[in-house]
Amino acid sequence: MKPPIYKTKEMESKLIIKRYKIPEDLLMDILRILFGNNIKHKIIGIQQVQNSVLLNVNFDLNSIKNREAKENMEGILADYSEYMKGLLGDTVLMLDEDDDETEY
Amino acid sequence: MESTCLYCEGHFTAIRSSKKYCSDNCKQMAYFKRNGLVLSGTIEVESSIVVPEVTVKPSITNEIIVKYDKEKDTVKYANEELTVKYNKDKKSEFEFLPLSNSEEEEESESNEFKEAEKEVQKTELNKSRVKIEEEKKVEDEPRYKWINSKLISLIEKNYEQNSGGIKIKEPFEYWEYEKAKCIVWVNIRFRCLAESLIKLSNYSRIDCHTLLCITDAFKRLVTSATFNKLPSDYPFKEFIIELFIGLNKVLSDKVHLNLLAFKITKERKAQLIFIRHQLMLHTPEIKFTEIDFIEEKVHYD
Predict the structure, then answer these.
(1) Which of B144, B152, B198 is closest, CB to CB, to A76?
(2) Residue A73 to chain B, least CA–CA distance (Å)
(3) Which residues of A touch B273 (CB under 8 A)?
């Protein structure tokens, strides 16, 4: 039986969930980051028409690796958004957790 | 044993041969004397060492004046006057430590200084140890391996090679007026077709008719008189022809299907995204349904 892990309020607040829409072009790169760094994630949906995956990713901002992985992921998505400006329509790749995506 | 006090020069009986002062008071006064201090109200031994007022002139402009008294000290600093009162009952505040003779005192002072120095050195050592340990911990942690997207790397590679980027930005500066007009006409259509191809490649399935329309538009563009007038150093000419041939091949293979998966290689997609990104800044955007690929006369947009 594992001993319980106690966390202070500050530590708790650094555990965040971010939602991303990953286009097919970047899917393998993003999965490499998630699996390579043991980052908790959950595929919450796929958008069949646009060939994209909706991911919920849990980041522990207390961990340097997690922080860098987040930066890495968001950097890739931001670059892609820049190059694809105007081609993705209303698609937003980095969403807030509360944003609804209904077309699955 | 009879001895003479070094401070008041009075005779006294000493138990130890090294005893120099008749009382603690004399010992204390001797200490003040050595350090150039005299308490007001006490018997002055030497007039030169009596310091009733100490004036400290700071480097700025304000003056600090300290007046010593039996029961209170007055400190003047600029216009403010502060008084420090001595409470005689509170011995602990003004109790002097019993002093031994001057040599012992100096020795003890130097010992204390040495001990303090040792303590400082120890703490510094500990601090440096902690720092080294922290650094080791950081080094021990496996460093994060940055992952680059293959597609984005390929786009950036295209930018590094910068195939014709500057020429495309200002065609009228690089080519003759007639040729530059042809380039602008082709650029507008090519931007539209490139965007269409990128968008289609993002869908899992596309209608075969859509692909047919795109291929037809490429055919019209490539066979147009304006396209043939393009200068030989126009950077995208070969790529447009290459795309047209590729689309034709895909269409001939899958013309029997209603829906088809349209995929382009990462290298080609990166090139398309790069060209479109360049054209985006200097070429107007026109929708595929609104653009005219047929060319009776040369269009100069």
Answers:
(1) B152
(2) 9
(3) 83-84
Q: What is the ipTM of this complex?
A: 0.79
Q: What is residue B113's predicted lDDT score, i.e. its pLDDT? A: 72
Contacts for B144 with CB less than 8 Å, ≥ 6 apart: A37, A64, A65, A68, A69, A72
Judged by CB atoms within 8 Å, which residues 126-185 of B form the interface with A? 141, 144-152, 155
Q: Residue A46 to residues A43, A56, A93, A104, B136: CA-CA distances in angstroms?
A: 8, 12, 13, 6, 44
Q: In this structure, which topology does domain A14-93 adopt according to CATH? A: Ribosomal Protein S8; Chain: A, domain 1 (3.30.1370)
CB < 8 Å to B286, chain A: none
User: Which among A51, A79, A87 has the least Cβ separation from residue B152?
Assistant: A79
Cβ-defined contact of A29 to B150 (cutoff 8 Å): yes
Residue bearing the bigger pLDDT, A94 or B298: A94
CB contact (8 A) between residue B202 and residue A24? yes
Mean pLDDT (chain A, rounded): 83
Note the pLDDT tens digit of each residue in A14-64: 889 999 999 999 999 999 999 999 999 999 999 888 889 999 999 988 888
Phi-psi region of B33 (alpha: psi -120 to 50; beta: other; left: phi over 0): alpha
pLDDT score of A76 more than 90:
yes
**Pairwise CB contact (< 8 Å): B280 & A76:** no
Note if the pTM is more than 0.90.
Answer: no
Domain residue spans in chain A? 14-93
For the ranges A57-71, B39-53, B228-242, the one whose mean pLDDT is highest: A57-71
User: Sign of the C-alpha dihedral, residues B121, B126, B130, B136?
Assistant: positive
- % of chain B exceeding 70 in pLDDT: 69
Q: B203–A24: do the CB atoms touch at under 8 Å?
A: no
Q: How do beta strands A41-47 and B53-56 pair?
A: unpaired
